[in-house]
């Protein structure tokens, strides 16, 4: 079963974004994106922004 980080990584790659580009779009840091993709639970504000960027 995929975790949230796996889903986010897959969608980011589908959009052809780097972690840095996604971080800039979300107003957070690249290390924060890396941690989320590795399994950390994202802050709710970032999670909501991720949803809007991926649509």
TrEMBL record:
Q: Which InterPro entries match?
A: Cro/C1-type_HTH (IPR001387), Lambda_DNA-bd_dom_sf (IPR010982)
In what residue span(s) does the HTH cro/C1-type domain sit?
8-53
Domain of life the protein comes from: Bacteria
Q: Which Pfam families match?
A: HTH_3
Q: Which PROSITE patterns match?
A: HTH_CROC1
Concerning SUPFAM superfamilies, the annotation shows: lambda repressor-like DNA-binding domains
List where this protein forms a coiled coil: none
- GO molecular function terms listed in the Swiss-Prot or TrEMBL record: DNA binding
Query: What name has this protein been given in UniProt?
Result: XRE family transcriptional regulator
Organism, by scientific name, is Candidatus Dojkabacteria bacterium
């Amino acid at each position: 079963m995929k975790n949230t980080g796996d889903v986010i990584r897959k969608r980011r790659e589908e959009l052809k974004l780097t972690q840095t580009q996604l971080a800039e779009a979300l107003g957070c840091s690249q290390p924060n994106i890396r941690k989320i993709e590795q399994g950390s639970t994202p802050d709710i504000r970032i999670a909501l922004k991720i949803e809007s960027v991926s649509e």
